[in-house]
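Support reply, case 0932

Customer input (verbatim):
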Amino acid sequence: MGSGPWHPQQVALRCQIVLAAADGQSDGAIAQQLSINRKTVMLWRQRFAEQRLDGLWEIAPGRGRKPHYDSDKIAAIVDATLQTKPEGMTHWSCRTMAKSQGVSKSTINNIWQAHQLKPHRVKTFKLSREPKFLEKMTDVIGLYLNPPEQAIVLCVDEKSQIQALDRTQPGLPLKKGRCGTMTHDYKRNGTTTLFAPLEVLQGKVIGQCHQRHRHQEFLKFLRTLDQEFPGEVPLHLVMDNYGTHKHEKVRNWLKRHPRFALHFVPTSSSWLNLVERWFGHLDEKAIRRGVFRSVEDLKASIGAFLTAWNKDPKPFVWTAMVESITQKLSRCRQTLEQIQPGCTSPRSRKRKK
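Our regenerated output:
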């Protein structure tokens, strides 16, 4: 059996790969789950198939000077990374940790890589306090995984306050050895709101821009859907809990049009609405780096992206099961309760009288 300060972590990662493969997961899914390269997954699956458990303990001989820090020092650095913060700062960098521990920044970088520590990165999250969370989530995921026959499922939402931004100076074009450039400051030329439904089965999107996003605009949007999908085919709409969607006039209109069936995602759970994925593509590929001298320019750019998308639509395929999501959220709640008891309770954020 080999030795070395990073060996146990390497073996643990290889074992995770093999166990995930035994559960029937694909190479791509394992790589995404463990935040590693897909070729690494393929390598260790092949090693295990050829050499069984002995292959997982193999350490390739390294080049250069060998590390001279013992396991206690490495454990202290890992513990400091996880349990402390530098004075006056929110997180450690390689240089600040190296100075604190009296080692080189390359040593810190190697240790962090070996233990998969990334203090410079952070991901956002929000746990829903919706009392009917499980019921609503099951309803929406059921539509994705087992859509009703002879019906159309549409994921509906508004992307509000899309800004028409014009740069103060022309940007420099892309060329060899240099990326394209744009000024850091900008001029605001107004905003628009995009109402969009994503057809789950085919991936097509119908867009409609309005200046505001009140119940009046939402009713116009519903009438547009009624015209775009003629006949009596049922329309199942997945949407969030925005007040506009539950306005009295909207409810009255829906009563007169019973083929519209609404399915509300739980509060703070926009990740359940597939059209949010499409909004991300729109923002990244047509808006964020765009230059718009007017709201009309912005609307034209959105329309051009819609046209190009619908020529070759790509549906977003939902694969997560209710059970796996519930287990993950349960682990998150347990962790949060350990950090701050009561923080996941629906009443925890109410102001004390």
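We compared this against your earlier run and they match. Two observations from our side: The chain has a mean pLDDT of 87. Residues 7-114 form one domain. Please reopen the case if you see a mismatch on your end.
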